[in-house]
Write a structure and sequence with these properties.
The chain has 296 residues and is of the alpha/beta class. It is built from 13 helices and nine strands. The structure holds NADPH dihydro-nicotinamide-adenine-dinucleotide phosphate.
């Protein structure tokens, strides 16, 4: 197996890195807050790298998982950056839910030193990452994907080649825009039904065996909204970013997409109102405030 480096021990990156550490890949770990990487390497079979360059030095596959593509780009530069040590023939796999334009720019910079680049965002949430059951959607050269597939299979259950560089990012953004739409519209519908005297669990019982069901209605509302648990697993700020990328893809392709554009506006407003640390499902609290209704 190739040697691997992983950068970005966030909510989803940490369980992904745990599986890689258990897979005996000579794993090297870097995180912006060094204490997290130190704690991780004390607990798992991984070496704590003090800089991105030290993480990438000698690695065959370098995996990044940061909030936005611009963060990945900023890790590339300077004497401590990834591009200082990424060697010819290695592969940079970006698992960030990124934006296609930045991924294409990153791919070009990597290609200039014979390094391959794949955008490889993931879906399945923190629970999917913990179970090594993520879906990985990949943009870039299909032959390069085949080379790194055994590494991605350590945390991914379904690995799909979507097209050229940026195609993985685009698919991920549209998927998450659908998640956002379902969250918002299910909240509006349940608020209306609550006001009409129908209990939300009764409405969900019907919807979840009918044609209006979604991951939001089947899982997120029963487990997180009706219980008022609202656990923090995926920040609203990141979902806002994803919907913005989907709206941007539609604009770039000159596809009229009023629902995507409106969803992007609504999620930007909710993100600003609820702050950086709010979970994505907390957008329901924002709809509750707008409608004067609590869904419980
Ligand atoms: P988090 O906000 O939990 O973690 C972000 C990670 O990136 C942390 O390790 C943080 O370091 C690091 N980081 C933040 N800014 C920078 C920067 N400027 N330079 C270097 N490192 C930085 O994010 P998630 O783990 O939730 O998400 C990561 C990516 O995965 C995102 O693109 C997200 O959209 C996507 N994703 C997330 C899912 C989820 O359920 N959480 C599901 C599917 C995809 P530090 O420790 O120093 O703060």
């Amino acid at each position: 197996m190739p040697t691997v480096a992983f950068l970005g021990l966030g909510a989803i990156g940490t369980p992904m890195a745990r599986h890689l550490a258990a897979a005996d890949l000579g794993l090297r770990i870097w995180n912006r807050t060094a204490a997290k990487a130190a704690a991780f390497s004390a607990e798992h079979r991984a070496i704590h790298a003090l800089t991105p360059a030290a993480a990438a030095d000698g690695a065959d596959v370098v995996i990044t998982c940061l909030p936005v593509s611009a963060d990945v780009e900023s890790l590339c530069d300077g004497p401590d950056g990834l591009l200082a040590t990424l060697r010819s023939g290695s592969v940079l796999v970006d698992c960030t839910s990124g934006d296609p334009a930045t991924s294409r720019r990153l791919a070009a910079r990597c290609a200039a030193q014979a390094v391959a680049f794949l955008d490889a965002p993931v879906s399945g949430g923190v629970a999917g990452a913990e179970q090594a059951a993520l879906t990985v959607m990949v943009g870039g050269d299909a032959a390069v994907l085949e080379r790194v597939r055994p590494v991605l299979a350590v945390f991914g259950k379904k690995i799909v080649h979507c097209g050229g560089v940026g195609a993985g990012d685009a698919v991920k953004a549209v998927n998450n825009a659908l998640l956002a739409l379902h969250l918002w519209s299910t909240a509006e519908g349940l608020a209306a039904l609550t006001q009409a005297g129908v209990r939300p669990e009764v409405a969900l019982d019907v919807i979840n065996t009918s044609s209006g069901r979604s991951n939001a209605s089947m899982n997120l509302f029963p487990e997180r909204v009706l219980t008022r648990a609202f656990p923090r697993t995926f920040r609203l700020a990141l979902l806002d970013k994803d919907v913005g990328i989907a709206a941007g893809v539609a604009r770039e392709q000159k596809v009229a997409a009023p629902m995507l554009q409106l969803t992007a506006e609504l999620f930007r407003a909710a993100h600003v109102a609820l702050g950086e640390e709010a979970d994505h499902v907390e957008v329901v609290k924002w709809v509750e405030r707008l409608t004067g209704t609590v869904i419980e």
